Amino acid sequence: MIFGCKTPGNIWTILSMLPIEVIERVLDYLRGDAKTLAICCLVCQDWSHRARYNMFKTVQLNPGRMMRFFAVIVHHPGLATFVRELTINMPFSMPLALPRNGQMTNLRTLRLNSVDLRDERFLETILHGARSVTEFGLYDCLFATQRDLVRFTQRLPHLKHLALWDPAWALSDPQVAQQPVEDVEFTALRAISIVGCSNYTPSTPHIFCAFLSGSPNGLESLSVLKLELQWFQLRRLWENLTPAAGQLRKLELSVNGVRKRNEAFEQPFPTCVFHKLLMFTLEVRLCNRHYVGPSASPHRPHDPSAHTKWIVPLLTSVRAEDLRLFEFVVRAIHCHDGSYDLACIDWHGIAGVFGQARFAPVRQVGVVVHCCRRGNLGDSGRHVTDATGTRAGVLKEYIRERMGDVERRGILNVRLVGPGM
Q1: Nearest in space to 236 (alpha carbons), one of 260, 261, 280, 272
Q2: According to the model, what pLDDT value does residue 294 have?
Q3: Which secondary structure element, helix H or strand E, spans residue 64, and what is its range?
Q4: Measured between alpha carbons, how far is residue 245 from residues 194, 276, 293 in Å?
Q5: Is 18 within 8 Å of 44 (Cβ atoms)?
Q6: Are 330 and 371 in contact (CB under 8 A)?
Q7: For 61, what's the count of Cα atoms within 13 Å in the CB-facing half-sphere?
Q8: Is the pLDDT of residue 306 over 80?
C-alpha cells in the first residue's frame, strides 16, 4: 500500500503524477540491484534511460560475464557511454578473444585484476574510446617490462590517480627490464601509489623512477605519493625523488624490515627539499629476524638494529618548511620480538629532529603502534624490553618520555592499536 492506495490502478495514477526528477532519484537508490533495474527498464520510456544508466554505471566483469557484456555493448553501443567505473577480473591463463566494444567516452575509473597486459588485442579492446579515464588501478597484472607499464599508462592522457599493486614481470633480465623510458608525458597525473612489489625486480624505486625519468617535466602535477619498499631501497628513491619532491603535498612511505643478512645501512641520506609538503607519513614494519631459506629457522641479523638505524638520518635529510603533520606508524604485527625492536628505535633522535627550528610549523607529531599478537610487546602487550632483557616501561609512557622535546611542545599524540590496547 502506497499513500493509502489499495489498487494497482491508483498506484500508477499517483506515480504518473510525480515529477520525473523524483522517480530518477528513487532509481538512483537501486544502483547495484541489476535485476530490479532491468525490470524498471521495461516499465516505460521515461524510466528506461535512468534505469539503464544506474545499471551500467558501475560494472564488474569476471571471465564468465565478460563475453556477454561485450556482446551487449556491440549490439547497443549507446550503453557504453553509461559506464563510469569498470573493474575486470581475469586470470592470466584466460584466452583474450574479445570483440571490439563501443566507445566508453565517459569512463572515469578503470581497475584491472590479474590481467595479462602483454596482449595488444586486449589493450585495444579496453582502451578503445576510453581516453577519459582519470583513476587507474592495476592489481597483480602481468607486464613484459616496466617500460611497457609506463607506455601503457601513457595511453590515458587524462589520468590523475594511478594505483599499482604487486605487478608481475614476464622478462626477468634486469638490464633489459630497467631500461629508461623517454619522451613520456603525464601532465595530469596527481597521485601515484605503488605497493606490494618491494621484494621484486624491478622494485618500487625502479618503477617510480621509470615514470619520473621518462617525463621531461618531472611529473609536475604530482601532489600525492604512496610507496612501499625495503629500508635498503630508500637511498635509491631519495637520490631520484628531487624532480618530483618540489610539488608534493602528501608523502606516505611504508618501509619493510630487513630481509638479507648482508645489507648494511649507509648514511647519510642526500638532502631532499619539499617546498609544498603538508603531510608526511612514515610507516615502519618491524622485523628483527629473517630466513636464509624456505625451511631454515629464523635468526637475528648480524646487526639487530640495522632495520631501524635509517629512521633518524632519513628524517634529518628532509627539508619541508610548510610541513604541518608528521605521523610515525610502527607495525609489529608479524614481528618475533616487537618489544626489543621498539627499544631499538631512536626515539630521542626523532624528537630531536622535530625539535629543530625548521620544523617549527609542525602542528602535530603522531605516533601509532600496531600490534595484533599478544605477547610480542611484553607481558600484557603494553611494555617495552630493552637490549638487556629488562622491562623499560609501559609503552605509551616510554615513548612520551623519550620524545620529551616534542611532548613539551604539546604536539605529541601517541596511540596504540590492537587487542587489549
Answers
A1: 272
A2: 40
A3: helix 63-75
A4: 16, 8, 38
A5: no
A6: no
A7: 24
A8: no
C-alpha cell at 414: 601517541
3-state secondary structure of 400: helix
Q: Which of 271, 174, 289, 282 is nearest to 228 (CA)?
A: 282
The answer for 4, left when phi > 0, alpha when psi is -120 to 50, beta otherwise, is left
Q: Tell which phi-psi region holds residue 219, choosing left (phi > 0), alpha (psi between -120 and 50) or beta.
A: left
C-alpha cell at 250: 602528501
Q: CA 201, CA 146: separation in Å to the nearest integer? A: 10
Mean pLDDT of 196-209: 71
10 vs 276: which has the higher pLDDT: 276
Q: Supply the pLDDT for residue 160.
A: 92
What phi, psi does 127 have (nearest 5°)?
-85, -5
3-state secondary structure of 390: coil
Look up residue 137 and give its three cell numbers.
588501478
**91-94: which pairs have CB atoms within 8 A and are 24 or more residues apart?**
91/63, 92/116, 92/142, 92/168, 94/63
Task: Report which residue type is found at 421.
Answer: M
Q: Where are the alpha helices (DSSP H) in 76-223?
A: 120-127, 146-154, 174-177, 204-214
Higher local confidence (pLDDT), 149 or 353 = 353
